[in-house]
Design goal:
Keywords: Membrane, Transmembrane, Transmembrane helix. The protein is an alpha+beta fold and 357 residues long. Helices cover 35% and strands 18% of the residues.
Length: 357
């Protein structure tokens, strides 16, 4: 079945004999279902595919294949009903980069199923206060069969025109990121950390602050006790036994774990932010950080989250420590390519750029 002239879904003429969106949607949805790393871009593309499938087979209603940012966000996150928030959500998700960075895999997926066309993303810009529309359109996989070239025009000529989104949009100038900040109180602590953090934060000069100080002093006391036991054993005049060796190995391992715990808390006080242990965050929450900040005259320690979207592949960017001489410095690392897509992190400006190698 070829495209009906009465209800075109993209500006290509019928002579191109492109398949309809409805014919390619099942393969596109199957490809999306095979993407296992969850991200905002993937959720929005799935919503676009599912909503398009609901109306793709309706004749004479091709315009309904277009959706604005609010339509897509309400499918994924019904609590976000404000258009400005939805627009920012779609912008930060970087749908274009997600598809363009995976174009080789996506086109190979369509080709393996005997298809000569695939689906790409289109954004139709409008003038005034009208909302931009997002949709899917078919295109030929082979370059020689491609008859429609992207228009290179000024911003004024883009008004009311469909804009193909391709790999060219993700250039070196895009390799800057802005970190989204989830303040204390929005990140839910686990049941283990709830007595300490309450709803997500606590003052250092409070009962919870004293409990926090005890979590620092207790490991230090254990380390001192282990060191004292080892020192006293040096004065025991008897042959070394297997039990002694086992004790030394266990004491060294326990001492290292306790020292790493104390060091993290020291870095929190000195550097103001450290990655939070998984045991402190609710199991269905993304990774979070412990941050020390001032609120008036009080010093607050809370569970917060700094995250971003990778400008290369649109995956989630998480904060991780560097290696070598930068083992104490936090970097933004893409969850899909943590060694290649690495960005700096500035806690004050909440911005970053490609990390130098």
């Amino acid at each position: 079945m070829f495209r009906d002239e009465a209800a075109p879904t993209s500006p290509e003429p019928v002579a191109n004999r492109l398949p309809t969106v409805a014919e390619l949607l099942p393969c596109f949805q199957e490809w999306l279902a095979g993407q296992h790393v969850e991200s905002n871009a993937l959720a929005l593309l799935r919503a676009l595919g599912n909503e398009s499938a609901k109306v793709a087979h309706l004749t004479g209603r091709g315009e309904q294949l277009e959706f604005n940012a609010e339509d897509l966000v309400q499918v994924c996150w019904p609590e976000l009903v404000d258009f400005d928030s939805a627009k920012m959500k779609v912008k930060n998700a970087k749908l274009e980069q997600y598809l363009s960075s995976r174009s080789v895999d996506r086109e190979a997926f369509f080709a393996q199923r005997g298809l000569k066309h695939s689906l790409r993303l289109r954004k139709r810009s409008t003038s005034g206060h009208h909302r931009a529309q997002w949709s899917l359109e078919p295109y030929a996989l082979t370059p020689q069969e491609e008859t429609i070239e992207p228009h290179a025009a000024s911003d004024v000529s883009h008004i009311g025109r469909l804009e193909p989104v391709g790999p060219g949009d993700a250039g070196p100038a895009c390799l800057r990121i802005e970190y989204a900040y989830a303040p204390a109180g929005t990140v839910k602590p686990s049941w283990v950390a709830r007595p300490l953090f309450g709803s997500g934060s606590f003052k250092t000069k409070s009962l919870r602050g004293l409990l926090f100080a005890s979590t620092v002093m207790a490991p230090m006391a254990c380390i001192a006790l282990l060191a004292a036991i080892v020192w006293l054993m040096l004065f025991v005049n008897r042959p070394v036994t297997t039990a002694d060796l086992a004790f030394f190995v266990c004491a060294a391992g326990i001492g290292w774990v306790l020292w790493d715990f104390v060091r993290q808390l020291w870095w929190l006080l000195a550097d103001r932010i450290v990655p939070a242990a998984d045991v402190l965050v609710r199991w269905n929450e993304p990774p979070a950080q412990l941050e020390s900040f001032k609120q008036g005259d009080a010093r607050i320690i809370g569970l917060v989250r700094y995250s971003a979207t990778c400008p290369v592949c649109a995956a989630t960017v998480e904060l991780r420590y560097g290696a070598g001489h930068e083992r104490r410095r936090l970097f933004g690392c893409c969850v899909e390519a943590p060694q290649e897509h690495v960005f700096t992190f500035d806690r004050v400006t909440r911005q970053g750029k490609t990390a130098p190698r």
